[in-house]
Amino acid sequence: MLLDVAVSPDDRFVLTADRDEKIRVSWAAAPHSIESFCLGHTEFVSRIFVVPNHPELLLSSSGDCTLRLWEYRSGRELHCCPVTSLQEPTEPWSDKRFAVSRITYWSQEDCVALSCDGLPVVYIFQLDAAQRQLVPRQLLTFQHRVWDAAFEEGHGLWVLQDCREDPLVLYRPVGGQWQSAPESAELRRVCAHVRVNWAMLEGCAGVDSGFSSLYKATCDNMTTYLKKKEERLQQQLEKKRRQAPPPGPNGPTKKMRAGELAQGCSS
């Protein structure tokens, strides 16, 4: 099952992400010819993104709650960063499984933003291309579920949330931190346009994500085996107790051989 598709900036490669935890890199001119596999995720790969100003690099997210950086032509994993590294363990969703539903990128600052499967948060990471690593930067929290997020060059980070009265929030970097921009004529105009089309958004973006059905089912075979073994032994013991003869007045009755039984009868 394909979950996402990307094309390299030079149009030479087609990259596909699937439920079976892998990313496949194929030649666009001959898709049956596989250049490499990017292997490392332990759950379905939800999103992939080729970094536009570093076209040799690929970002990927998964149901295993990690953001990974790849050199995709060789299939080499450069860095793995847990998405949960930015959140506090006391958050109400801290023990919930989730997957990234959007990867968006701001080339001006090599900034990566992630929205996640209906959670009221956006995760901000910094791509250090020279060191080939991802650096956690900031966790943006909201009062409502986040439906989507996107960078607009020169403006900032737009966040669409599940709130008709306040559907859009614009964030801009201030002193190294992303902060909510004050209300402006531009923000009011865009919000008004979103409200006009709210019924369409509510029907599409508002539905629950399908990621929850993609997680691998777990089965503890050893526990099941030991439980059935114990039940079987108990059944065998119960059967033996039912088949055993009742004890005599002086204790259990001793079984007699056929000859001893005949001799006893003649006497």
Automatic annotation (TrEMBL):
It is found in: Nucleus. Keywords: Nucleus, Repeat, tRNA processing, WD repeat. PROSITE patterns: WD_REPEATS_2 (PS50082). The keyword Repeat applies. Residues 230-267 are annotated as: Disordered. WD repeats lie at residues 38-80. SUPFAM superfamilies: WD40 repeat-like. The keyword Transit peptide does not apply. GO terms for cellular component: cytosol; nucleus; tRNA methyltransferase complex. Its main location: nucleus. One of its GO terms (biological process) is tRNA modification. Pfam families: WD40 (PF00400). It comes from the Eukaryota. PANTHER family: TRNA (GUANINE-N(7)-)-METHYLTRANSFERASE NON-CATALYTIC SUBUNIT WDR4 (PTHR16288:SF0), WD40 REPEAT PROTEIN 4 (PTHR16288). This is tRNA (Guanine-N(7)-)-methyltransferase non-catalytic subunit WDR4 isoform X3. It comes from Bison bison bison. The gene is WDR4.
